[in-house]
Amino acid sequence: MSATRRRSLRVDDPLGAGDERASSRPPSGERDDAGRLRDIPLGEIHANPQQPRKRFDDGALTALADSIRERGVLQPIIVRPSEHGYELVAGERRWRAAELAGETTILALVDGELDDAGSLELALIENVVREDLTPIEQARTLAVLLDDLRVTGNALSRRLGRSRADIVNTVRLLDLPDEAIALIDEGTLSKGHGKALLAEPDHHRRRSLARRAAEGGWSVRALEAEIARVARPAAPRRPPHPDQCAAAARLQDVIASATGCEAKATPHRRGFQIILDQAAADRLARILGGEVAGQ
Fold first, then answer.
1. 215 and 268 together in one domain
2. What's the number of domains the chain is made of?
3. Region 188-197 average pLDDT
4. Does residue 207 fall inside a structural domain?
5. Residue 252 lies inside a defined structural domain of this protein
6. Span 72-91, mean pLDDT?
7. Do residue 216 and residue 269 come from a single domain?
8. What is the DSSP secondary structure assignment for residue 235, as one 8-state letter?
């Protein structure tokens, strides 16, 4: 596909129409290299080491490569100048698929004004909004923006179109044990499982529950039910009524008198629990006209 045809494409800025930097840029024909849309040799581009996405689905890459062979790269990637060519800011999946498709160049928007914070923010928008990161990759990326780059929760919520509660709950997945994080990251457990595990206050039990949920193929509801079952305190037993205690004492005396052996009777729910030794049990059975089972 010709470079002329590619340059006729409209650039959809991942930062959105509200970004002042994007809205203030002049048309591409009036720019220098920085801020300009151009074809760049794939070999001059290297990945951003701070890129939150670490894994790419081979099948999805192959499908995108087939599309690129037929139609070219429809959406430019974004890069910034570096000491050894250009550093990828957003569009790593398209860059990899273009290589797979046998392309030698790729359409790119060169932005020389981005600092590390701007680069990471672009990468976040590119990946979280348009590509399906794992919940753990999302959590790590959001944590960097909130903790390291000091982006406010409200600003992040507006930029991503997600509620603050969802953002906070996603970041909290990083509070889970490493084993649980790994199970969510590999897709064995879901984000819903992770949120359920956060309801369990004991860190060691979180690990055990995550392992059992993965091995047993538990649904999120099943995991929540198990956590609630253990967390629910046992109802305290009411002390027996004084009349029931007096009746137990009389029953104990009657049995002891009849068998000539010690017996113990205590209130139990709506009745009584009687404890006898073997000799007392044999004598009581004979009195009642039967025998102790097993004799």
1. no
2. 3
3. 95
4. yes
5. yes
6. 79
7. no
8. P
In terms of domains, do 226 and 246 share one?
Answer: no
Helices 203-216 + 178-185 axis angle, to 10 = 30
Q: Are residues 190 and 269 in the same domain?
A: no
CB 267 within 8 A of CB 244: yes
* Closest by CA position to 88, among listed 128, 34, 37, 51: 51
Task: Average the pLDDT over 133-154 and give the result.
Answer: 77
Q: Is 179 a catalytic residue?
A: no
pLDDT class of 24 with cuts at 50, 70, 90? very low
Residues 62 and 10 in one domain: yes
Q: Six-digit token pair at 245?
A: 């205690």
Q: Which of 30, 44, 92, 200 is catalytic?
A: 92
Q: What is the CATH number of the domain that holds 28?
A: 3.90.1530.30
* Residue with token string 């004004």: 113
Give the Å distances, CA to CA, from 237 to 8, 229, 231, 264, 268: 79, 18, 18, 20, 11
Beta bridge partners of 267: 272
**Residues 6 or more apart in contact with residue 231 via CB below 8 angstroms:** 199, 200
Whether 232 shows a pLDDT value over 70: the answer reads no
Strand-pair category, 105-110 with 45-46: unpaired
Q: Which residues constitute the domain of residue 253?
A: 242-287
Structure token pair of residue 39: 């074809």
E strand spans, the chain: 36-41, 45-46, 77-82, 85-90, 105-110, 263-268, 271-276
